[in-house]
Design brief:
The complex is a heterodimer of chains A (112) and B (119).
Chain A (H helix, E strand, L loop, with lengths): L3 E4 L2 E4 L5 E7 L12 E6 L6 E5 L3 E2 L7 E6 L2 E6 L8 E7 L6 E2 L3 E5 L1
Parallel strand pairs in A: 2-11
Antiparallel strand pairs in A: 1-3, 3-8, 4-5, 4-9, 5-6, 7-8, 9-10, 9-11
Chain B lengths: L2 E5 L2 E3 L5 E8 L8 E6 L5 E7 L6 E3 L7 E6 L4 E6 L8 E6 L15 E5 L2
Parallel strand pairs in B: 2-10
Antiparallel strand pairs in B: 1-3, 3-8, 4-5, 4-9, 5-6, 7-8, 9-10
The chains are: A mainly beta (112), B mainly beta (119).
Chain lengths: 112, 119
């Protein structure tokens, strides 16, 4: 199975400051069709997860443009340009290139 | 308004069975590949099972293979997860979702249903 790792696992941030989460996979996430299937989710406290980004860098409708995804191969990053209070929660990456699909352990973002 | 509503969770003894349901409204389930994803109390997310949009392919995580079965009733627009031979480590909130759709704004999650396996 593809192992997904995230760092850091805990990220205290200052409101208005940028934040960055790294996600790495144990093997390349490039699929045979040339696409890379890497998703980012946000889970706010007490809520279901919500997809933010799909195929590495495609932002979902309604997701603020302060969220951006980048990366390739085995190395990916989620960036928040200016953290707001509503961004508190746990962020997960998930690969949907190889079966079984696998999640990273999550990065908990809170306010300093 | 698009909604996914899970039901069927509860408390069951080890070795028992449960069938989870996920009723969709506002969209047609058979349009999308659908997944079950679980989250043990205080833990991270774990992908459990997948059914292709046309029902022709199903995949499972090794931990549930041979015990869980994913299915869909298009006439009821409902997704199911039949869970047999339940173990304590199956205790989790179970979500239905279609997180792998490659169209913006069409990835939906339910609110989850809690399954507790305990004697």
């Amino acid at each position: 199975d593809v192992v997904m790792t995230q760092s850091p696992l805990s990220l205290p941030v200052t409101l208005g400051q940028p934040a960055s989460i790294s996600c790495r996979s144990s093997q390349s996430l490039v699929y045979s069709d040339g696409n890379t299937y890497l998703i980012w989710f946000q889970q706010r406290p007490g809520q279901s997860p919500r997809r933010l980004i799909y195929k590495v860098s495609n932002r979902d409708s309604g997701v603020p443009d302060r969220f951006s995804g980048s990366g390739s191969g085995t190395d990916f990053t989620l960036k928040i340009s200016r953290v707001e209070a509503e961004d508190v929660g746990v962020y997960y990456c998930m690969q949907d290139t190889h079966w079984p699909f696998t999640f990273g352990p999550g990065t908990k973002v809170d306010i300093k | 308004q698009v909604q996914l509503v899970e039901s069927g969770g509860g408390v069951v003894q080890p070795g028992g069975s449960l069938r989870l349901s996920c009723a969709a409204s506002g969209f047609t389930l058979s349009t999308y590949a659908m997944h079950w994803i679980r989250q043990a109390p205080g833990k991270g997310l774990e992908w459990v099972a997948f059914i292709r949009f046309d029902g022709t392919k199903k995949f499972y995580v090794d931990a549930v293979k041979g015990r869980f079965t994913i299915s869909r009733d298009d006439s009821k627009n409902t997704l199911y997860l039949q869970m047999n031979s339940l173990r304590t480590e199956d205790t989790a909130v179970y979500y239905c979702a279609n997180p792998t759709v490659v169209t913006p704004g069409t990835a939906y999650w339910g609110q989850g249903t809690l399954v507790t396996v305990s004697s």
